[in-house]
Amino acid sequence: MKGLLSWVKSNLVKERPEMFIKDDSVRPGVLVLINDCDWELCGGLDAELEDKDVVVFISTLHGG
């Protein structure tokens, strides 16, 4: 997952990366699912991804 987060930040996030990444992880308020399972249950940043794994980022952050 560490490599994927770095790649996403460098290649996909075009504006306000601080809304997605904080330090070396996702910001609090961003839910990460690996194959429909919370990434914390899969090892978090240390989770090893395999071919055909599906990773979803869901923001629970919103304005007032």
UniProtKB/TrEMBL annotation:
InterPro entries per the UniProt record, alphabetical: Beta-grasp_dom_sf (IPR012675), Mopterin_synth/thiamin_S_b (IPR016155), Urm1 (IPR015221)
Modified residues (1-thioglycine): 64
Source domain of life: Eukaryota
Covalent link Glycyl lysine isopeptide (Gly-Lys) (interchain with K-? in acceptor proteins), residues: 64
Pfam families with a match to the protein in the record: Urm1 (PF09138)
Gene Ontology BP annotations: protein urmylation; tRNA thio-modification; tRNA wobble uridine modification
Subcellular location: Cytoplasm
Maturation and modification: C-terminal thiocarboxylation occurs in 2 steps, it is first acyl-adenylated (-COAMP) via the hesA/moeB/thiF part of the MOCS3/UBA4 homolog, then thiocarboxylated (-COSH) via the rhodanese domain of the MOCS3/UBA4 homolog.
Biological or metabolic pathway of the protein: tRNA modification; 5-methoxycarbonylmethyl-2-thiouridine-tRNA biosynthesis
A cellular component term, taken from the record's GO annotations: cytosol
UniProt keyword annotations, A-Z: Cytoplasm, Isopeptide bond, tRNA processing, Ubl conjugation pathway
Function of the protein: Acts as a sulfur carrier required for 2-thiolation of mcm(5)S(2)U at tRNA wobble positions of cytosolic tRNA(Lys), tRNA(Glu) and tRNA(Gln). Serves as sulfur donor in tRNA 2-thiolation reaction by being thiocarboxylated (-COSH) at its C-terminus by MOCS3. The sulfur is then transferred to tRNA to form 2-thiolation of mcm(5)S(2)U. Also acts as a ubiquitin-like protein (UBL) that is covalently conjugated via an isopeptide bond to lysine residues of target proteins.
PANTHER family, A to Z: RURM1 PROTEIN
Family statement: Belongs to the URM1 family.
HAMAP family listed in its UniProt record: Urm1
Protein name, per record: Ubiquitin-related modifier 1 homolog
Organism for this UniProt entry: Aegilops tauschii subsp. strangulata
Lineage start: Eukaryota, Viridiplantae, Streptophyta, Embryophyta, Tracheophyta
